Amino acid sequence: MSQLLTPEVAALSGITAFQDLPPAVLDWLLQAGELRQYAPGEVVVEAGAPADRLLAVVSGGVQYYAVNSVQASPVFRMEPGQVGGVLPYSRLQISKGQGIAVGETTIYELLRSQFSALEHQSPDLVQRLVSIMNDRARDEVRAQERDDKLRALGKLSAGLSHELNNPAAAIGRAADALNKHLCNSPLLLKNLMLAGPPTTAMIALKALASESSERQPPALSALARADQEDELADWLETQGVPDGYALTDGLLAAGLTSAQLTPLLAQLPEAARAPALAWLEAHLTALRLTRDIREASQRISTLVSDVKTYSHMDRAGGREPLALTDGLDSTLNIFAHALRDKNVRLTRDYAPGLPLVLGQAGSLNQVWTNLIDNALDALPAKGGELTVRVTAQNGFVRIDIQDNGAGITPEVLAHMFEPFYTTKPPGEGSGQGLDIARRIVQEHGGRLEATSESGKTEFSVWLPSKM
């Protein structure tokens, strides 16, 4: 009984995982390990050092930091009574973070080399430690997935803001121009009425305005368009319209040339021609501006819909029948800015009549994000090609994401799906994306594979179809 009251044994008894252990086991722990004192701010665990010790905080605490080339970020803190470091059956070989003592700190340490003896001495304690390790692994997986989603969101947010800003700016410009035209419209109508056009000419003017509002002129090169403007401006001048150049852009945008305008002007006295064409051009331009506003607002609505589809915001969190091409399309649309920046030629090759897949849309979109983002990183500066192919094969839906980058060496390919393995510079890649992607695919009953050769890398996802 006296042994149980010694300060050393009392210290170990305060560790949650060590509570209610037989005295003989506590004695063995004291003999096999040691109690160490750390000063405030002293390094307990060095990032990159061999992970070779179980750590149990008796007093004080240990603050862990994730260390990169730029800064150290706090991750978690070990409080008195908690166990950390390496635990039995852990595959951790290198310490990923740095641990710093918080205040005067006492830590019980047991070297990894003693784990085999510990298992013979106390299978119960080993079971407790394994349970702690499993809980910690689950927490770490959840944290990795959250971090990976945030990294993906960070990559997409810049491009998405650009995609939203373009139509928003277009709406602003069109609204300003439309306001100007509408404010000027009463004056143009007044000038036209003062010129005294005959009723038949006004009917013809209204009919031409209605017809032209629905016309979509063919696309022309800049040079051909300039030639058309010169030709129309010269013709208008011969018809007594001195400011013809000011009207040519709006008239040509509605598909009106001298051939369409000649019958109208033939019905108008010369004094009414200029005000009639000025009103017609303003009216057609106002209609075109409203169409521009409608199209730009529709683009914003489409982007918002893509984000909702991508993030699974408008659905419950469980699994449901999914058309995988919807998630692929929303992810590709959110990457539109990055695709344009690298001038990537995108091919979507979707087989008709694809079956549905029972899955969680948000998780699968995370898979597409990782694979497409990696493909974009691998593409050359010019001549990049990205192919997304979806087919049905033997009860599975197969998704292939292929790029024409330099390829992946066999040495790197062999480790691609290992946690924390990355070929990117420090701070640019966590090495978790492909590991998380494969885990998500496996949780859906599928598999994720990769093949590569010079000029072609392909990641293939097989997901069981919902029959």
Any overview of this molecule?
The longest helix has 72 residues, at 123-194. A five-stranded mixed β-sheet has the order 10-12-13-15-14. Strands 1-8-3-6 form a four-stranded antiparallel β-sheet. By secondary structure, the protein is α+β, with helices and mostly antiparallel strands. Helices cover 51% and strands 19% of the residues. A hairpin with a 2-residue loop joins β12 and β13. The chain has helices at 7-13, 23-32, 115-121, 123-194, 199-213, 222-238, 244-253, 258-266, 270-311, 324-334, 336-341, 361-378, 410-413, 433-443, and strands spanning 34-38, 43-45, 53-59, 62-67, 72-78, 83-85, 97-101, 105-111, 320-322, 345-350, 357-359, 385-393, 396-403, 447-453, 456-464.
